[in-house]
Amino acid sequence: MNPSVQAQLSEIVGAQYVVDDPAECAYYSQDVFSAGETAIAVVRPASAAELARVVGVACKAGIAVVTRGGGMSYSGGYLPAEAGSITIDMSRMNRVLAVNADDMYVTVEAGITWEQLHQALADTGLRTPYWGTLSGRFATVGGSVSQNSIFWGSGQHGSAVDSVLGLKVALADGQLLDTGSAAQRNASPFFRHYGPDLTGLFCADCGALGIKAEITLRLIYEPPSRAFGSFAFERYEDMLPAMAEISRRGLAAECFGFDPYLQSQRMKRESLGRDAGQFLGVLKSAGGLGKAIKDGLGVAMAGRRYMDDVQWSFHTMIEERTDDAAAVCLATVREIVAQHSGRELPDSIPKLVRANPFGPVNNMIGPAGERWVPVHGLVAHSRAVPTMDACEAVFARYQAEIEQHEIGIGYLLATVSTHCSVLEPVFFWPDALEEMHRRSVDADHLARLKGFPANPAAREVVTKIRKELTAVLMEQGAVHLQVGKSYRYEEGLQPANFDLLRSLKQVVDPQRRINPGVLGL
Q: Which among 505, 485, 507, 512 is positioned nearest to 73, based on CA atoms?
């Protein structure tokens, strides 16, 4: 790095927070699946003001700047596309800045994890409507708002960006821009829409247009009553319509499912011992001593044998204001399942998942230490079954290579709000783990795995199939979270839309120094 630039950055954040160690730079230049150009430095600002100054200095010097949150992405969104780039590590910007219970919003720095935010709000009776992804032990609020994400609360409240009221964004020229009502000179960040939705402009942009420093999210009261349900189906052609109907009626806060392969992987990976370790979480989350004992005993008695003959399954978590309302929702779910040829299972899986919402990210590798990577698409409910059929056709064409390289393939399925189904094909294959896995997966879990040698041939096949799947998903009208540098964003857009986006990029980042290459910009 230019000594003058390094000196300026060191003055802004402190010399100890400008890291140029080659190993650290290489680590911060890889995601779950791949690696980019190795950054020349990792810079760690501690405030919005420091972030804005860092961005301004780097961009003025012609240095590309890429922002990294928790690192749980797999689509190349924060991987440097150019040699000589700087990675901004947001981990020091992890404070809750304001909890406003009168106006029902919380403002946080972008580097806070979903788990940290969850813990900060734990005793308030409040939470954000969407409250995190399953990788929330590492995944940050800023990363989710930049890439978009789903899971906790998505069944009723949508994706991460649907809970955002406003942003404070660092632009390429070093300015800080407020969006939403906070842009009004005398207002607080209590409302998203004040004229054109500039908040939306910087949401799900994968860090292409500016770098989020602070984020204001809506608050709601935590629903006090819950109900859970698990259900089995012989065919996805029956299960997906059932999930869609539950979604359309807004019955479940979360609704997610698995194919037979992914279920078997989960059963191999998890253990009754770990279930027992999570038992305390079930007791704490149940609400009331009697209910806690009942729920805890139900989980303990269910064990895992009931999953042995299950093909496709999905699981629901219902949140309501009263126990009676939750029971009505669950009864309606059962009726829908019966109408679609499903049957009920013990509800231990959703109870365990809900009781321990931000557990270890050990699922980012296979049960024996295999490499893992998904590809996904969000489709209208009416397109879910045809899109699954199209994905299955891709796998059928590659069946010989899949078997040759011992590649396992499964599906994670989910719903978002009232209008959307999520299909996520998942790959497992024997291959060497990377530093990303070694730093993220629990050490004691890693120590028990046999591991595998490097397997570039299998990795190449996985890459080839994923590329074909992204093309098929585009043809099916799918959209994507964490578009990054992997999905066919420009190719799938109407030309006028991409032309407008390119023009906006020219205005906010005329030298294309903020995450060049992401979204195809």
A: 485
